[in-house]
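Chapter review. Work through the record for Transcriptional regulator AsnC family before attempting the end-of-chapter questions.
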Amino acid sequence: MKGENAVTELDRIDRAMLVALQQDGRMPVAKLAERVGLSETPCARRLKRLESDGYIDGYRAILSRKALELGVVAFAQVRFSVHDRALSDRFEREIQGIERIVSCHNISGTADYLLQIVARDLDEYGVFMRDVLRTLPGVTAVESMLSLRELKRDSGLPVP
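Structure tokens for Transcriptional regulator AsnC family:
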């Protein structure tokens, strides 16, 4: 499946480049070229094409929760009692600006949304639940699940 703007099919070298960049997005073009068996210029051209075709959304640093003292990772299932498009739109707009919510998915099943939330400790998470999450538009029920231990962190997407 191609990205929204993707126009080219991926070959073996494109796939190898994407895998390598997911492991190290700051890899210099020279090192990337060596890893995939190209010279620098064709590698740089391919990289620009992968970016412009929408296969690469962007680059970012992976921060340490421990260093930032964010000891709690919680997953919250959020339910609405009224399923109104305008209410859902307001909820979705408001969560975009809440830094503690690191991901949000509109899901199927008994809940409407699944949020991943970080906090310094359980006290801070409790205050966040009471003062922020439960006051968001449309929210009528929240069920929290606390992560006891992270076994695998986002390691990138599989590249077919």
